[in-house]
Amino acid sequence: MDRDNGPGVRVPEQRTPWEQAAGTELRFTVLGPVRVWRGGEALPSGSPQQRALLAALLLRYGRTATAAELIDALWGDEPPSQALATVRTYASRLRKALGQETLVSEAGGYAVRIPREALDLTLAQDLASEAEKARGGGDRGQARALINKLLGLWDGEALASLPGPYAENQRTSLEEWRLQLTETRLDLDLEVGCHAEAVSELTALTAAQPLRERLRELLMVALYRSGRQAEALAVYADTRRLLAQELGVDPRPELSQLQQRILRADEELARPADEPAPAAVPVRPAQLPATVPDFTGRASFVRELGDRLVTAEGSVMAVSALAGIGGVGKTTLAVHIAHRARPHFPDGQLYVDLQGAGATAAEPETVLGAFLRALGTADSAIPDSLDERAALYRSALDGRRILVLLDNAHDAAQIRPLLPGTEGCAALVTSRVRMVDLAGAHLVDLDVMSPEEALQLFTRIVGDERVRAEREAALDVVAACGFLPLAIRIAASRLAARRTWTVSVLAAKLADERRRLDELQAGDLAVKATFELGYGQLEPAQARAFRLLGLADGPDVSLAAAAALLNLDPHTAEDLLESLVDTSLLESAAPGRYRYHDLVRLYARACAERDEQPPVERELALSRLLDFYLATAAGVYALERPGDRLADHREPTQYAGLAFADRHDAQDWLYTEANSLLACVRQSSGRGTLRRAVDLLWAAKDLAESGANSKQYEAAATAMRDLAHEMGDDRAEGRALTTLTNVRLVAGRFDLAERDAQRAMVLARAADDPLPNCWAPNDLGIIALYQNRHSDGETYLEQAIANFRADENRPGEASALCNLSRIHLAMGRTSSAVTLAQQGIDIYDGLGHALRGANGRYALGLALTQRGHLSDAAERLGEALAVFRDSRQRLWEGMTIFRLAEVDLAARAPAQAAAKAEKALAVLRGIGGEWRRGNVLMVLGRALRDVGQAGRAQVCWHEALAIYEGLGSPEAAEVRALLSPAAAA
User: Alpha helix (H) ranges present in 644-749?
Assistant: First the structure.
């Protein structure tokens, strides 16, 4: 679970590095209460004054403190008459607890002798040094991680509750250090682009440290980079006014200069600091095929493989094996790298095309003969056998620095005799097969180009003028080529040779997916030929798997889903899929997940249409995949919502899905499969699959509420609604509309949500379908609440409760009760609001319904807040927040943080309220809609006003007003009142 406890606050469940290294040795803490530990056992350290003595000794890092120094540390200028005796007593007690070897007496004083790692403060100092070195070396991520680890050592206030002037001085010093470290960490946050996340923490810190200008400066930068320029300028105005009032001074020059840069909309300021570019490694091969003049991109691979080749100097042979699909650019990249590496291999470079993808691969003996001749060996001196040639080859390379490029290898057995195997030499191998059985090789998988690289390559071939005139069409072309270098080069060459064609003409030709492979042919560079070659070498079972897997529209497919589609057990399916990975026709996207390159998928589908007999096999395969997703998603839904009636009302399935015992594993599956699952929904457009596809959407509704997949979910739901309407299927259309209503509610588009819910309710009655018949009025009640139509909302929700009860849907009944609680609360009926929310919680808890129980606690927290029971409200909302975070419900996580900000505001804790409101804005970014954002901005403005940041508060309210006025929301009147001169006074 995500835990955010702010800077320097320890999370109890976590163990610090200091704790993890504990063993049975003594350990001491001063960054919090002064404590002594032996292993996991806390040792008694005595009274506060005795602990103050221990702290004074610990903070001398092993140096001796005289009795007079200790007396001064404990009592200052007014020691008691028995001060010396008291010091001796404390020392004696501590020696008994710690051991004579730890607390020693010498030269009229005392010292604590412990290893450096035994004190949390020295560990913190070491971490700070490491962080400084990492930052100086340009590794901001590592520096940031180290400082976070360092701040995690604090457990509240340093030297907490210790008396005496020494402890007080050290406490102040350590707190200042912590603030400096926090500023450094926040500075790093901004440098790596985490500006939106930093605003919440900086808001709280500036409220707690209003005169600390560095924090104000960081806040201004964070706001500016978050697109909140007006707020950033308001922070400066608030700071200037505060400094004048409190200290009679102006802001420091750095703050004023920052204000001017923000006023100018400085583009450099808007960008995080770039990471320093790694030093280019001057690597070139020799005696190689000519490198292409328009080589583009692949910078990270050039660096990675170049660095690897350089290690051959003065060390054992370096072998790198570059694998990838035909046409992905393996040879081009390898040749380019080899040319760059030439200075490191002055004794020569060898190259061979091993023809591993062809019908007949090159024989190692033949290659060795050619290599030996190139190295100066006479024909008469070249032996006949493979082993003898290999031995002579290694002897010829001994003492020389040679680079060997083995291109297009078939397998590891083919290239083993060709490896130099001597110090100072290196081999670079390309193959469509991953050389997993090549001992000691550095394996690299080459993927397609990025869109930017692909466009650069296309432009270099076609010409900048033509591409600049039709940039969008050019992007369409490279996308249609799947960003595959070979396909892009083919397409660009066709265009370059036809001056009468425009880029748009080529894009139009490639737009039809079924024609794409045929269009991309140019002599020997035929994409289709490269695929045909690999497909023709497959065994029948491999070929069937290759064809059928290509039918699924998802970006990738899991092993379990593939097994369902192929109608095989998982072990057999895995063997087939891994064999396809070895041919590079299929890619292993991650352990247990597989994917095709776009063009390979099209080729696989063409093969399926041509070769899969009978044709119904294609439909059956996709039907099994749909069954698998529906059965599994329905199980996840039931695990999250015990007692829900979806299981009784959904379409039956023939193929079983996965079963999960743990809800977290179930959630992991749903979110991992989201894109593939939604693609399956959209692909299921036949009469025999439509209803199952709609039910799959219903079972996967958490994807809409999480925010991560809302757009894809909405697109799929819209497509299913339209399809159901065309087919005249009222039941499917009603359910699709209900899923769409949920999407609109999450997005804050209440007018559209109401339209869909009204239509769903009509269709549900016509089809006598209990699912939308229950949920549509429940949704309409929520919409009425948000639109301040409370009487309508009460009517809808009472109807929903009756319908849920008639269907014996207890979780649905609880949902409607909690929503009715909010209606009663809005109508001023606080007591009944509390009662209704508690009734809903009781039902949820009785069913073991954790996620929806959190919704009940959210409703109860609102009622308790309005009732003035703030402590109870915060507790209920905190319980809800923990579940929402654990369940990845980002909308409800953000809304609960917002409600906790309201509790803080009511409790007169504006600094905490402002920090929580900022956190809510960050969590709700991109989800929840503008109306909810306006609500958060209203509360944030109130909190900022109460901490003295009136200028920034005004900016927040103006933004909220613009939102409400744009939506025609009645809340606009409340904001106008806040912005009125009377309110400001």
Answer: 646-649, 663-672, 674-683, 690-699, 702-706, 710-727, 730-747
Q: Residue type at 706? A: S
Give the C-alpha separation, 728 to 687, whole Å. 11
Residue 201 has pLDDT above 80, yes or no: yes
The CA angle 103-108-114, to the nearest 5 degrees, is: 20
CA 451, CA 466: separation in Å to the nearest integer? Answer: 18
Confidence of residue 285 (pLDDT cuts 50, 70, 90): very low
Whether the CB-CB separation of 351 and 342 falls below 8 Å is answered with no
Q: In what order do the strands lie in the sheet with 65-66?
A: 65-66, 109-112, 103-106
State the helix-helix crossing angle for 830-847 and 810-826, rounded to 10 degrees. Answer: 160
Q: Which helix (H) or strand (E) holds 141?
A: helix 140-151
Answer with the residue of higher pLDDT: 966 or 489. 966
Long-range pairs of 519-525 with CB within 8 A, sequence gap ≥ 24:
519/491, 520/481, 520/487, 520/490, 520/491, 520/599, 521/490, 522/490, 522/493, 522/494, 525/486, 525/489, 525/490, 525/493
Return the higher-pLDDT residue of 880 and 480: 880
CA–CA gap between residue 178 and residue 215 (Å, rounded) = 13
- Kindly state the average pLDDT of the residues 169-194: 92
How many Cβ atoms are within 10 Å of 660's Cβ, its own excluded?
A: 17
Dist CA 512 CA 490 (whole Å): 17
Tokens standing for residue 470: 């039709």
Is the omega angle on the peptide bond into residue 115 within 30 degrees of 0, that is, cis?
no
pLDDT at 306 over 50: yes
Give φ, ψ of 320 to 5 degrees.
Answer: -120, 130
Distance between CA atoms of residues 137 and 139, nearest Å: 6
Which of helix, strand or coil describes residue 718? helix
Residues 432 and 424: their CA atoms lie apart, in Å, by 27
Note the pLDDT of residue 925: 80
**pLDDT classification of 290: cutoffs 50, 70, 90:** low
- Give CA–CA dist 372/379, Å, rounded: 9
pLDDT digits (tens, 9 = 90+) for 600-611: 788 899 899 888
Tokens for 176, please give them: 């200042």
Which two structure tokens, joined as six digits, stand for 383?
């032996």
Q: What pLDDT, on the 0 to 100 scale, is given for residue 302?
A: 74
- Kindly indicate the confidence band of residue 129, based on its pLDDT and cuts at 50, 70 and 90: very high
> What region does 287 belong to: left with phi over 0, alpha with psi -120 to 50, or beta?
left
Instruction: Indicate the helix (H) or strand (E) that contains 206.
Output: helix 195-208
Q: How confident is the model at residue 328 (pLDDT cuts 50, 70, 90)?
A: low
What value, to the nearest 5°, has the Cα angle with vertex 195 and ends 157 and 229?
A: 115
**Buried-exposed string 284-323: b where 16+ CB fall within 10 A, e elsewhere:** bbbebbebbeebbbbeebbbebbebbbebeeeebbbbbbb
pLDDT single digits (tens) 78-123 = 999 999 999 999 999 999 989 889 999 987 899 999 999 999 999 9
Mean pLDDT of the residues in the chain:
85
Find all residues with CB under 8 Å of 333, minimum gap 6, and list them.
Answer: 298, 301, 302, 305, 322, 446
CB hemisphere CA count around 304 (13 angstroms): 14
What are the DSSP calls for 29-49, one per residue? E-SSS-EEEETTEEEP--SHH
Q: Is the pTM of this model over 0.85?
A: no
At 342, the pLDDT band (50, 70, 90 cuts) reads confident
Report whether 135 contacts 12 (CB < 8 A). no
Nearest Cα to 927, choosing from 703, 598, 602?
A: 703
- Rounded-to-integer distance, Cα 905 and Cα 898, Å: 11
- Which pLDDT value is given to residue 630? 97
